[in-house]
Specification:
There is one protein chain. The chain is α/β, with parallel strands linked by helices. The protein has a single domain, classed as Alpha-Beta Barrel (TIM Barrel). Helix content is about 30%, strand content about 15%. The strands form two sheets. A six-stranded parallel sheet has the order 3-6-7-8-9-10, with helices on one face. A four-stranded mixed sheet has the order 1-2-5-4, covered by helices on one side. Strand 9, helix 6 and strand 10 form a beta-alpha-beta unit.
């Protein structure tokens, strides 16, 4: 029986289509015996408002200093679920810069430097649904190689064809993680089977995973039952689940940063 102490993928009202505050998420996390959650609100063209000049409005995401690091005994990690934008694996705002800034960092770079954990994912954009398997594979591999990205979220339900073995091996080589997303198991048997195949490949190659709720309300924070049931069915090794403890998750993130020569902080 697995024990998951960190929910690395939760959403708040700042995502625009979720229903709870960070305090409500923390309270439910405490009730379920967790030690930490990540505030990983959406960051992408369908979720992030833009100013008149086309610059994104980060809102609460860029004001994490206004929050306590611990709420109701739960450590709050800063994260973001960032949209993959094209078949090359570029992420939202990778090519945008704030005018007048003293360096050449993109807006994406500046955001990632403030995150404890970076998450990349695909949502239902028509261009992604038309990718070939080779294109989908390159897209995910390039996203995994992005400095400051540590997790590919819900690859089993994104609708993008990809070579599971190649992406899993790339994640292993980069020291990064693939997500076993509990919410994905609400999308039918085909998605369930794909998530199982991804987990089996991670088991085969020794690639780390995270198990997450993808909660869009506090009531789902810490809900991993479907994901854990599948992992138990395939006898998935506990040591390959990064978020069984906060210490293991942060160590995995730090190792990935070191392998890529990446440092958080601006």
């Amino acid at each position: 029986m697995y024990k998951i102490q960190v929910d690395p993928h939760t959403h708040t009202l700042a995502s625009g289509h979720a229903h709870s505050t960070i305090e409500e998420n923390a309270r439910h996390a405490q009730e379920r015996g967790l030690t930490a959650i990540a505030m990983s609100d959406h960051y992408g063209p369908f979720f992030t408002p833009l100013q008149a000049n086309g610059m994104p409005v980060f809102g609460p995401m860029m004001n994490m200093d206004a929050l306590p690091k611990v709420i109701h005994g739960i450590r709050i990690l800063s994260s973001a679920e960032i949209d993959i934008m094209d078949k090359e694996g570029h992420l939202f705002t990778w090519d945008m810069r704030y005018p007048g800034m003293p360096d050449d960092a993109s807006i994406l770079d500046r955001l990632l430097k403030t995150r404890d954990i970076g998450i990349a994912s695909v949502h239902n954009y028509s261009s992604h649904l038309q990718l070939t398997q080779d294109e989908g594979t390159v897209m995910y591999m390039n996203a995994l190689k992005t400095p400051g990205i540590h997790i590919i979220a819900h690859p089993g339900r994104a609708g993008v064809p990809f070579d599971i073995e190649k992406v899993v091996m790339c994640a292993k080589e980069q020291g990064k993680m693939l997500e076993i997303n509990n919410h994905s198991f609400d999308f039918g048997e085909k998605v369930h089977a794909l998530c199982r195949d991804i987990a089996l490949s991670c088991k085969k190659h020794g690639t780390m995973v995270v198990v997450s709720s993808d909660a869009h309300s506090a009531f789902d924070v810490g809900q991993f039952d479907a994901a854990l049931k599948m992992l138990e069915e395939i006898d998935f090794p506990d040591e390959l689940i990064a978020n069984t403890t906060l210490e293991r998750l942060l160590e995995t993130v730090e190792n990935a940063n070191k392998m890529g020569g990446y440092k958080n902080g601006i």
